[in-house]
Amino acid sequence: MSLLEIRNLKVEFDTAKGPFKALDGVDYAVDAGEVLAIVGESGSGKSVAMLATMGLLPNTATITADKMEFEGLDLRTLSAKERRRVIGKDISMIFQEPIASLNPCFTVGFQLSETLKTHMGLKGRKARDRVVEILTSVGIPNPAERLSAFPHQMSGGQCQRVMIAMAIACAPKLLIADEPTTALDVTIQKQILDLLVKLQQDSGMGLIMITHDMGVVAETADRVIVQYKGRKMEEADVLSLFENPKNPYTKALLSALPENATGDRLPTVSDFAEAGGF
Q1: Do the strands 223-228 and 35-39 form a parallel or antiparallel pair, or are they unpaired?
Q2: How far apart are CA 147 and CA 113, in angstroms?
Q3: What Å distances lie between residue 155 and 112, 113, 150, 184, 193, CA to CA?
Q4: Fewest CB within 10 angstroms: 66, 96, 164, 272, which?
Q5: 32-59+77-249 has which fold?
Q6: How far is the C-alpha of 149 from the C-alpha of 145, rounded, in Å?
Q7: Is residue 49 within 8 Å of 30, Cβ to Cβ?
Q8: In the structure, how many helices (H) and strands (E) does the chain have?
Q9: What is the DSSP letter of 136?
Q10: How deeply is 233 buried, as exposed, middle or buried, from its count of CB atoms within 10 A (0-12, 13-18, 19+)?
Q11: Does pLDDT of 266 surpass 70?
Q12: What are the structural domain ranges in the chain?
């Protein structure tokens, strides 16, 4: 049995211009100890799929699925209280922009302690010691001194590490990383990716990596799902995807990589679409 299994997931938003279908029958599953990458251009529904799984979409969204199970637990039927016991503890998510995800009014130490208090019942000295331990594990220098820092007093890379610390604080079984290296410089990107992979390997948790960077996919993933306009185009193990892509859209993505350039200009997705590929 998969750690997480989603079948025929559909998401539709009510907008001023009428219904908008963001996802149209997406399937995916991830096992413990596996790294699944979900790739595609902006607007392909990658983040929406994860937010729907987490139960974090607004009331304007209509979510349906034939199956949405985590370790056999039906996520579709959970009450708000039951969902809070799972989300943040067994399933955690690292969001795209750490500065926007961290509360600017509270210190880093307080926000991390709240997670431990809510899900593990840790308070006082025990909570503080655990926070220092977690910040150390994600590479925050002088972690004890950082407990009193506010998010705006930390760099983008440090805030991203704090978000990772918050996500792994309760030793989740599944971690979702939504564009975890967005807006970070190349050196910090490499450090964050290495950190996520190490944490995943050390704990044996499942990891879903949402990205549009095929280089990240090649370095980190075991299996890949390619999405386009709310639909799944292709699913394969990472080696097969790069060596023998089946879907025209996947071929378009790979052909657009600078290292695959063969002429004066890179091909675009529209070049493949115009040829009738998808």
Answers
A1: parallel
A2: 10
A3: 17, 21, 11, 10, 17
A4: 66
A5: Rossmann fold (3.40.50)
A6: 8
A7: no
A8: 12, 11
A9: H
A10: buried
A11: no
A12: 32-59+77-249, 250-277
N residues, the chain: 278
Segment (H or E) for 25: strand 18-30
On whether the CB atoms of residues 248 and 263 are closer than 8 A, the answer is no
pLDDT the model gives residue 31: 95
Structural contact between residues 16 and 201, judged by C-beta atoms closer than 8 angstroms: no
Read off the tokens for 51: 């937010």
- Distance between first and last Cα of the chain: 33
Q: Which two tokens stand for residue 8?
A: 């025929």
Model confidence, pTM:
0.89
Across the beta sheet with 35-39, the strand order is: 91-94, 174-178, 206-211, 35-39, 223-228, 231-237
Reduced to 3 states (helix: H, G, I; strand: E, B; else coil), residue 7 is strand
70-84 tens-digit pLDDT? 998 999 999 888 888
Average pLDDT over residues 36-40: 94
Residue type, 221: A
- The letter for the amino acid at 222 is D
pLDDT above 90 for 216: no
How far is 36 from 3, CA to CA, in rounded Å? 12
- Comparing 5-19, 58-72, 89-103, 118-132, which segment has the lowest mean pLDDT? 89-103
Q: 201 and 194 in contact (C-beta within 8 Å)?
A: no
Block residue for tokens 């594990």: 137
Which position has the higher pLDDT, 155 or 266? 155
Q: Which residues are registered as beta bridge partners of 68?
A: 6
